[in-house]
Design a protein that fits this description.
- With 341 residues, this protein is mainly alpha-helical.
- The chain has 14 helices and six strands.
- It folds into three domains: 67 residues, Endolytic murein transglycosylase (Dna Ligase, domain 1); 73 residues, no CATH class; 105 residues, no CATH class.
- β5 and β6 form a beta hairpin.
- The longest helix is centred in the first third of the chain and has 28 residues.
Amino acid sequence: MKVILITLSVLFFLTLTGAGVGWFWVLRQLEPTCPSPQTESGEIKAIPTVTFCTGVDFIIPKGQSVQRIGERLEEARLIKNATIFRFYVRFTNLTTKLQAGSFNISGQSTTPEIANDLTQGTEDIWITLLEGWRKEEMAEYLTTQELPLFDDKEFLELSEGEEGYLYPDTYLIPRQSDAAYIHSLLVNTFETKVTTGLESELAAFPESKEDVIIMASIVEREGRGLAQMQEVAGILWHRLEIGMPIQADATLQYIKGYDDKQKTWWPVPLAADKDLVSPYNSYRNPGLPPAPISNPSLNAVKATLSPQETTKVFYIHDNEGNIHSAETLDQHNQNIQRYLR
């Protein structure tokens, strides 16, 4: 009996000791990665000059997991242990409170301090400019965001004549961004993604860069997804080759502009719209419009540069958005009867 009591006493002691050691280890993992600038005597020491001690800009993309955030913080030497960070966030119910954005974080902060800082509003804001928007839609959207210095009229003035060259994407920008900054960002991103990124493809293509962007701006509005846009591009380029007007409804929508009744910049075109007098009317005028009608995505530009080879000249979209193409007018009319009834 005495042996049993001694054994239990030893196990209990070891359990307490192990728990104490474990708890001490956890507490050490929560400490800053940089040493405190103040000694026990109160003397102030110089802050280390390494980047993670003085503070770094840390960006959290939308939808990034807590696990990945912790891993990146540890990789940047801003915290000691990604697993402890993840457990702390979940234990304190901060999982859904972490925000996407840009934060300035220092290795002199504890893991709990950093976790809580990531729940606070940032100095930056995410904006999403959709593919196929015209510049007026971009301006309208930006006025609804938390951008106190943005002026839509200034943006439209700066982007005059640059439809098609304002790159649509999701951006993380300072809340204090003005129209000039955003305009420059969109134009510079276009240069990086398209002019430079597709330089060899543009140089090898038989049509000019300007014509490619005009066509891509139409393809963006007429197709869905890369494969479908390649089919549309193939048909429209083929129409031009045989001297046929490209007859794209999106050009009629561009001419009409904002429709108060339908509350959209892209109203459903009517049969009468085909008679609209405008150089952008691709039913009345041969060749391409004089300028782009929207701001195309990178996929639309790629589809325009690598169109599907085809002899078809007609296409329609059914109510589910699927495309149906045809070589002859009779086949086209059959598709209309079959898929648009």
